[in-house]
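Retro notes, item 3 of 5
We never archived the inputs for the fe (ii) ion complex last cycle. Fixing that now. Sequence and ligand:
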Amino acid sequence: MFDVVDVVRDAGSEDDWFSAFSESGILRFRGQGPWSQIERLGALDFVGSRFGWRASRPDQITEPLFTYEEDHSHTFGMSDDRGAANEEFVPWHVESPNWFFPQIAAGWWFTRVACRRGVGLTGFVDARDVWELLPDRFRDLALSARFCGFDQGGFGKIESFEAGELLDGRLPVTFTDVDGKSFTQYAHRIVEDHLCSDAKVLRLFPSYGVEAISGENPGMAVFVDDRPAIEEDWAGLREMYEWVASTVRKRDLQHWVQWEEDDFAIVDLHAGYHAVSGGFDPKDRSFKGIWGHEDTGYRIEHGSRPNGVEGLV
Ligand SMILES: [Fe+2]
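Structure as it came back at the time:
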């Protein structure tokens, strides 16, 4: 289960940091800001190099200085309902688990926290716990399923997709869009070996509805035993999906964090389902972040087509 471990920069042994991150998923530096960008990158690379990820952006992983800002304006723009302190405002999710380069870690620094106590918290659920709790009836399906996203990279509606031969245990999938453009990505397993411990993690979207995998224009292709999912797989996939969505909403699996301005945190998003509770006003909560992506050893040439694997294999 996730927990916050407060750490002091330039203090504590390296092994203490690594074991805290591996077990608890959240390293928090409080009352030690502001940090320079170089200091943040240094801390991220220090932790990430131990666990096989690096600070970077998903489409051009040679550029580590990419910073994003989250002020929740997108979420506020989607609904008038701001939620309440004990309700989801940003729904439970893992970051793009079907992408070729999913975001599996992040450094977050809080630039504005004007929420009153108990409001605008970030909740975490450990994907290791989700895997451990998965009922036996789903286990074979979960272990044999892979998925692959085509909701990125500027391509149009997908016309067709085709899986290739396994390559180093990975399944390449080539998509063709309605304009005839094609691109290739690798499908990720739904259950992966956790990069930061010896456990397994179960990573599914719990928030975007089952149509994300099985609707009219789904956001990904799903494979079972390395062939496209067939009708008899879908019932199990839908049921497992609903089980994950309800499991991450169990209070006893959640750990909620109240942030303060100038907090800097390094979070494990390979195992970290997360959500934000509501009840705060626009502009009262914002933070900036740098993503961490798995360090595959591959380097995409700056400016090349994003996200695909062409030329990398
Ligand atoms: Fe997120």
